[in-house]
């Protein structure tokens, strides 16, 4: 028994020694990846069971942070609800938009396809350009939306778009959708171009009659890997909405109407914040981590099943 | 000796040929043949309408920003607002440069900081990620599957989750109030290594085997064969990371004024309120024009990389 174990260990060690070069190549990146991605996840999880203000050593308090979040923190429940609404709408809609636009422009002549790819992708790489929506939703009569509506005679007085709680989520959804055709959109365009064209010809002979059948029976099954990748990107983005809310609706927004899990996390855990309740904020971060990971894994399972 | 050298040359020539064949194959697949099947004209009209409507929705805000930056101030506040300026003026851009010239720290300082952060962060990431992606794609060694798995899982949560510990770690490492606090974490950008690994996967094994038989070391294979072949992927990584680093304002990490990046300085100008509306538009145009230009130049190469982005 003992002998077998040592023998096994030896072979593993031998394998490691034999692949020395591979490890030296992996090591530098992995070190940074570990330090700034993996270690923080572990630390965040650990800190979530403590009370910690960055000044004194963390104090273990068990599940108190989680209990407080769900039982005593009404604002967190608002944040949870808002995040959920935003994700349920922007996630699937942006995912479908990314695919449908990629699909529609796929057959166009090369130059037009190039231009439309640029137009749809540009918002997501234009950094802080979304602040322009401040001008569109501006509360005075110079705001583009107010001016247009007043011009058409639909409203008499300007509406305070950004300061009215009931408009907060719709505005966030519109701006977030505008920003959402990112990496997954590009992955879909690229994926569509690699679908084997002869399959379509074969399909036509086999009796595929229209675009929809072609999409369902040929294109989608061929695109499964890209569809899974795109889902990961869109889910992670739609659950992490924060910057748009902070910059358009303010921090905190009126009656917390645009508050999300990430803005709640920043409220307690940002080093600019006066609260500095790092343990509590870590509990928020840990919950977000599991929501993101859980949603991703479930959706992966569903997509994997499509067409099989 | 000379014979050995000769065979070395022959193998190299073979490699070149094989490489060419591979590249040709890649492009042959991309060449578009006219296939128009099962299409109705009603469907075509509908598609064009949809694209026009949503294309305008996508483009309108950006065009509006650009035209706003060219309007005189009274036109920006005209009722009702117009998309295109009646009189084109460059006064906002001139104002911007004057404003910048009057600040305590010259704008060139902020610009140099941003360029430094973007260039070092991107270069370091592309190099380290390719170096790491090669064995992860092509070698067999214990732990490889685990690392690949961790990289895929790390795509599934955003940086906000790790905000607090990342700050603590940076502070332990003494990176706070230094540009390194932005540059070093950028090296570990997980989407970058994921795309790079997927792309390296598509390099035929025979190409690498041939070089190995010829006695090339792993590092030689990496630098002479892998790196030149994954150029499209470099550009994709560069664009994705560039766009993040170009827009960074230093956030919680940089306090010293003359270490801060351009985005921070520009946000201060924008914070000037209503009278600065025109200047703010000029600022936005400057910030967005650089990443978009880079994407315009490299679109086809980016799409080439994205074709292999799929998750299995």
Summarize the structure in words.
The complex is a heterodimer of chains A (308) and B (312). Chain A has 308 residues and is mainly alpha-helical. Chain A has 2 domains: 1-47, no CATH class; 60-305, MetI-like (MetI-like fold, Orthogonal Bundle), CATH 1.10.3720. Chain A is 72% helix and 1% strand. Chain A is flat and about 70 Å long. Chain A starts with a helix and ends with a helix. Chain B is built from 14 helices and no strands. The longest helix of chain B has 32 residues, at 107-138. Chain B is an all-alpha fold and 312 residues long. Chain B has helices at 2-30, 41-69, 73-76, 91-102, 107-138, 144-154, 163-172, 180-187, 190-201, 205-213, 218-229, 231-246, 262-270, 277-306. The chains are: A mainly alpha (308), B mainly alpha (312). Chains A and B meet through α1, α2, α4, α5 and α6 of A and α2, α5, α6, α7 and α8 of B.
Supply database-style keywords.
heterodimer, A: 308 residues, mainly alpha, MetI-like fold, flat, B: 312 residues
Give a short overview:
Chain A has 308 residues and is mainly alpha-helical.
Describe how the helices and strands are arranged:
The complex is a heterodimer of chains A (308) and B (312).
Chain A: H1 2-18, H2 20-47, E1 50-51, E2 59-60, H3 64-71, H4 74-106, H5 110-125, H6 133-136, H7 144-151, H8 165-179, H9 183-194, H10 197-205, H11 211-222, H12 224-239, H13 243-249, H14 261-269, H15 278-305
Antiparallel strand pairs in A: 1-2
Helix pairs in contact in A: 2-15, 4-5, 4-8, 4-9, 4-12, 4-14, 8-13, 9-12, 12-15, 14-15
Chain B: H1 2-30, H2 41-69, H3 73-76, H4 91-102, H5 107-138, H6 144-154, H7 163-172, H8 180-187, H9 190-201, H10 205-213, H11 218-229, H12 231-246, H13 262-270, H14 277-306
Helix pairs in contact in B: 2-14, 4-14, 5-8, 5-9, 5-12, 5-13, 6-9, 9-12, 10-11, 12-14, 13-14
């Amino acid at each position: 028994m003992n002998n077998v174990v040592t023998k096994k260990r030896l072979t593993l060690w031998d394998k490691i020694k034999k692949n020395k070069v591979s490890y030296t190549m992996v090591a530098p990146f992995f070190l940074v990846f570990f330090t700034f991605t993996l270690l923080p996840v572990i630390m965040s999880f650990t800190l979530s069971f403590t009370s910690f203000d960055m000044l004194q050593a963390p104090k273990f308090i068990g599940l108190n942070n989680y209990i407080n979040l769900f039982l005593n923190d009404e604002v967190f429940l608002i944040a949870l609800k808002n995040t959920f609404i935003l994700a349920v709408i922007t996630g699937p809609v942006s995912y479908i938009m990314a695919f449908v636009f990629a699909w529609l422009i796929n057959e166009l002549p090369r130059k037009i396809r190039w231009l439309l790819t640029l137009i749809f992708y540009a918002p997501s790489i234009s950094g802080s350009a979304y602040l322009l929506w401040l001008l569109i939703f501006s509360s005075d009569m110079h705001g583009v939306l107010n001016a247009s509506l007043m011009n058409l005679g639909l409203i008499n007085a300007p509406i305070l778009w950004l300061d009215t709680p009931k408009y907060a989520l719709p505005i966030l959804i519109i701006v977030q959708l505008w920003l959402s055709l990112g990496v997954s959109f590009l992955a879909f365009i690229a994926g569509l171009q690699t679908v084997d064209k002869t399959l379509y010809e074969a399909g036509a002979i086999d009796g595929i009659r229209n675009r929809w059948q072609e999409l369902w029976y040929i294109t989608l099954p061929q695109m499964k890997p890209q569809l899974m990748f795109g889902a990961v990107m869109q889910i992670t983005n739609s659950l992490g909405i924060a910057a748009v809310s902070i910059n358009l609706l303010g921090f905190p927004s009126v009656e917390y109407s645009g508050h999300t899990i990430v803005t709640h996390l920043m409220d307690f855990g940002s080093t600019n914040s006066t609260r500095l309740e790092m343990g509590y904020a870590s509990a928020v971060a840990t919950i977000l981590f599991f929501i993101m990971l859980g949603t991703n894994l479930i959706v992966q399972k569903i997509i994997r099943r499509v067409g099989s | 000796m000379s014979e050995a050298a000769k065979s070395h040359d022959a193998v190299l020539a073979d490699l070149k040929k094989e490489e060419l064949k591979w590249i040709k194959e890649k492009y042959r697949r991309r060449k578009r043949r006219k296939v128009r099947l099962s299409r109705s004209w009603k469907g075509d009209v509908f598609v064009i309408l949809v694209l026009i409507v949503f294309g305008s929705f996508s483009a309108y805000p950006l065009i509006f920003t650009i035209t706003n930056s060219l309007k005189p101030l009274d036109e920006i506040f005209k009722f009702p607002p117009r998309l295109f300026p009646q009189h084109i003026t460059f006064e906002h851009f001139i104002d911007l440069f004057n404003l910048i010239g009057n600040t305590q720290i010259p704008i060139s300082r902020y610009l140099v900081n941003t360029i430094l952060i973007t260039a070092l962060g991107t270069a370091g990431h592309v190099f380290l990620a390719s170096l790491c992606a090669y064995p992860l794609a092509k070698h067999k060694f214990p732990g490889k599957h685990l690392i690949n798995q961790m990289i895929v899982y790390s795509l599934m949560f955003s940086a906000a989750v790790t905000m607090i510990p990342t700050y603590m770690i940076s502070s332990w490492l003494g990176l706070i109030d230094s540009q390194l606090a932005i540059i070093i974490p950028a090296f570990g950008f997980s989407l970058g290594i994921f795309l790079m690994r997927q792309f390296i996967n598509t390099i035929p094994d025979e190409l690498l085997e041939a070089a190995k038989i010829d006695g090339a070391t792993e590092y030689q294979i990496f630098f002479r064969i892998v790196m030149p072949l994954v150029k499209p992927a470099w550009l994709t990584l560069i664009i994705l990371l560039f766009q993040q680093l170009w827009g960074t304002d230093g956030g919680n990490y940089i306090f010293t004024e003359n270490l801060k990046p351009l985005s921070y300085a520009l946000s201060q100008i924008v914070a000037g309120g209503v009278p600065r509306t025109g200047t703010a538009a000029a600022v936005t145009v400057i910030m967005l024009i650089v990443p978009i230009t880079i994407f315009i130049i490299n679109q086809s190469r980016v799409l080439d990389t994205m074709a292999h982005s799929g998750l299995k």
